[in-house]
Amino acid sequence: MMKKVNFLLLFMFLNVFARAEEGMLIPTLLGAFESDMKAMGMKISAEDIYDANNASIKDAIIHFGGGCTSEIISDKGLLLTNHHCGFSQIYSHSTVENNIAKYGFWAKNLAEELKNPGLTASRMVKIEDVTAKVLEGTEELSGAEINQKIMANIALLKAEATDGNHYEANIKPFDYGNSYFLLVKETFKDIRLVGTPPNTVGKFGGDTDNWVWPRHTGDFSVFRIYADENNKPAEYSENNKPYTPIHHLPISLKDRQVDEFTMVFGFPGTTNQHTISNELDFIINEMRPAQIKMRDLSLSVINAAMKKSEATQIMYAPKQARIANAWKKWIGQIDGLKRGNAVAKKLNYEDAYAAKAAESDEYKEFQDVVKSLRELSAKYNSSDFTYNMYIEYVYVGSEMFKRARAINDLITLYKEEKTEELAKAVEAEKEAMKSFFEKYDVNIDKEIFLMQSEYYKNTIDTAFIPASLNEDLKDLQEEIFEESFLVDQEEYMNVLNNFDKYAKKKINKDAGIQLFTELNDIFRNKLLADLRVYYGTKNQLMKPYVKGKYEMYPEAKHWANANSTLRVTYGKLEGSTPRDGMKYTPHTTLDGVIEKYNTGKDDFDLLPRMLELYEEKNYGDYAQDGELWVCFTGSNHTTGGNSGSPVINGEGHLIGVNFDRSWESTMSDYMFDASRCRNISVDIRYVLWMIDIYGEAPHIVDEMTIVR
Fold first, then answer.
1. How many domains does the chain have?
2. How many CB atoms within 10 Å of residue 423?
3. Catalytic residues, which ones?
4. N or C: which end of the chain has fewer CB within 10 A?
């Protein structure tokens, strides 16, 4: 009887959570889903989406800066992505005298487009399943020999893929090593800013609206790819020309329809759909709340300082956005997972899985894996907590630690007597520290340090607290921020200019260096070994756990966790009913922008031009039934990295730019609920209206292929 109950629970789980909208699909596997996609309204073929040998939609999908997605929208390499994806570049060109972040910017011609050193844009050339080739010759091996053979096979395959061309190749494991894919890409290095709306559009709603629906944010920015005279990637040069793409996306101005087919094509970062139940419980109730609190503290200082000074606002806006984005996401994630009873559903699924595995010797490999994963999580959750708090404190908190890490790297080279490498590293650090101190306020950092140090000290196990934090924290704060060279640009440069002299003794006497060294030593000597065992063993156990899902339930819809590789997700333009008594419509309009502005809140501020155009109802060709759509929601499964991804209709035309999820949807990194999880996109017609009419830059729209 118990087996029947468990199987019934599993059957219900699979039917609820394997809806068509779930999953981030590898493009080469789309053929298996083509009929389902066409049943939902897709009119193009799987080969129109991905074809390694002919022009296809995938050739217009670009990995932007390694962390976002963008799409090519003209035959001159025009690149569309999110405002928040181009945020750092926008602010790097902003000054108090010429604040393009505040007022917007549109280049009038190619000569006015702004260069962005270090920014890259990568096109996926080919994706190939190379599992058999990677595992070739490992059948008779065991232990470390297997990994050595796999590494040798991977090196050979990468060399073959890049022989005689300018491409880069990587081979990534999928499903914890149950499969391997070769990823060949072409990376462009001359990417210029063409235009951005003002912050009052691109960041409209601020932290108030972040991860929230209804949304009215014009979250977009425009760049351009440049190439050499042969249309190949090249470093920045005045002689470079706009890139001629293999494919660019046509843009649809047609009226939108509720329930019409939508496809999001991009580079989603990370999902964790296989997380075991007690680990998820730990994340919800222990780890995330502590991480949120650490960011509460730093944001309270940064937000207050930014309100007092425009110069500080320019200086700290990108940092604030990076910290706040995950902070608010985690708050919504906890809420969504609790409301969705995620832990209980995971428990039921795992129990049913274990019962199914116990039914037959055919599934012997999977019989103990759930039990082992649960035991592993219970044993190492505390180590994982300490590690994540260490990351929040040393890598996300006080920026003083950033310079301490840089000095620590130099000290390592000094001790290893790598003279040439040290000299190069010192010169590189001289350049890095200049840009660092241009965006650094010691008083802000000083306050963040004290607040986070107090919470860190009171939260983690005493065995992991460095000796310096056991002293009076205000005294330590004063010693570091009044005397340490780490927070003083002139003193820092003096140390770099005389590094051999200072490296012998003086550096190690610095209070900031001493604290970082203590933290780093604790991490390496007390924590790292446990983490290696935990993560290594978890990956080993996850491989058969996931394999069991494929083999025991072959009819279920399976997909590999996101890992920053090119994926397709499909769904519909639709609203949602996330909780009792609440129903969300699938789109918002400019009327809602004005309504929010009228509340008087800072996050809903507007420049006068928006109010003027609204009063005139000057919507050009971009309205639908007299309304200017701003954003819409869809049932596409997205995550971080999908920011900037194109939303494509059934005809293969661009209708929007993905930029967020609703608050209830942030749970989808761990568990997708088709009834509540919605991605949020800015309507492409609002983008074009902002460029053409608001921004008075019709020449940019003229480059595009418009479908009416």
1. 2
2. 12
3. 84, 219, 643
4. N
